[in-house]
Amino acid sequence: MEFENPLVSAGLVMYRFGKKGLEVFLVHPGGPYFRGKEKGYYGIPKGVVDEKEDLFDAAIREFEEETGIEVDKNKKFIELGTVIKKSGKYIYAWAFEGEFNGKVVSNTCITEWPPNSRKRIEIPEIDKGRFFTFDEAREMMNDRQLDFFVRLREKLNIH
Q1: Do 107 and 30 touch, CB atoms closer than 8 A?
Q2: What is the DSSP letter of 125?
Q3: Residue 38's CB: how many other CB atoms inside 10 A?
Q4: Quick count: other Cβ atoms within 10 Å of Cβ 49?
């Protein structure tokens, strides 16, 4: 296993043009801690980059692992740059046009639950995902990641 840098993540923003205009696909973290928590908890499918892994390759790998959606690498991708979370973590992202109407099938991870109990449970990293308009995303997603949506609108010349 490669060394992972916990301060660098990469992900993909899948977008479509729906009935309400431009929409982006966002995911919600799985597990008991996030159950019932909606506003401010959605984000793009992303994850930690291995030390020697290409950022774009990591973004595709993480998107596929967290959603179960296969990404066609021959699609046109739009580079969205980087955002820096309050924690200091850097997130790199690219966007691609796509469609999905199914159920997210995520990989799993082990977490301690309840906190400080030393009991370990296996949970899905992501428990659901769906498309959001800009106004919906502004309310539902992590505020720093909203910059990716703003940049996508600019690159697609949508004001």
Answers
A1: no
A2: S
A3: 10
A4: 26
pTM of the entire predicted model? 0.92
- H helix or E strand, kind and range, residue 150: helix 146-155
**Domain limits at 137?**
4-155
**What's 87's domain CATH number?**
3.90.79.10
Tell the burial category of 132 from Cβ atoms under 10 Å away from its Cβ (0-12, 13-18, 19+).
buried
Cβ(18)–Cβ(28) below 8 Å: no
Tens digit of pLDDT for each residue in 65-114?
A: 999 999 999 999 999 999 998 889 999 999 999 999 889 999 999 999 99
Tokens of 130: 């769906």
What are φ and ψ of residue 38, in 5° steps?
A: -115, -65
The number of folded domains in the chain is 1
